[in-house]
Design goal:
- This protein has a domain of 92 residues: Beta-grasp domain (Ubiquitin-like (UB roll)).
- The protein contains two helices and five strands; from the N terminus they run ββαβαββ.
- The longest helix is centred in the middle third of the chain and has 7 residues.
């Protein structure tokens, strides 16, 4: 479930203008999910920024943990953008502050809830293995 963080300014992130793919790789696993994103019909879960890596993943039933509901108030949705990072929205100071708390930080680390691809490149995202909450309560 998404929402807003009243303590930060919502970043501006453009939406894609052309089709692109996001490949989600689970660290340490052969498991991969490839999602084709059509700008006319961006999959959304209403969690994180619209069109973010998290928003699209959840809409496609790809599990990325997100304790704060995708409002840039934690670092649980930390991912590593292995390819296509230059086509993603710029990280904000608020996002960088949260990333400082994430284990396994790399120069290509982003919060999945804040990282919005613009569609000019295909994206490859690595989901750290520790970031998968395999114990979920039933609905």
């Amino acid at each position: 479930m998404g929402g807003t963080n009243p303590y930060i300014k919502t970043p501006e992130a453009g939406q894609p203008k052309q089709k692109f793919t996001i490949e989600y790789q689970i660290q340490g696993s052969p498991e991969k999910h490839v999602v084709e994103v059509d700008p006319a019909n961006v999959p959304t879960s209403a969690t994180g920024l619209h069109g973010s890596i998290l928003d699209i993943a959840l809409a496609m039933d790809i599990d990325i943990d997100h304790a704060c509901g995708g409002v840039c108030a934690c670092s649980t949705c930390h991912v590593i953008v292995k390819a296509g990072l230059e086509s993603c929205s710029e990280s904000t100071e608020d996002e960088e502050d949260q990333l400082d708390k994430a284990p396994g930080l790399t120069p290509k680390s982003r919060l999945a809830c804040q990282c919005v691809p613009n569609g000019t490149k295909n994206i490859v995202v690595e989901v750290p293995n520790w970031n998968r909450n395999l114990a979920r309560e039933g609905a």
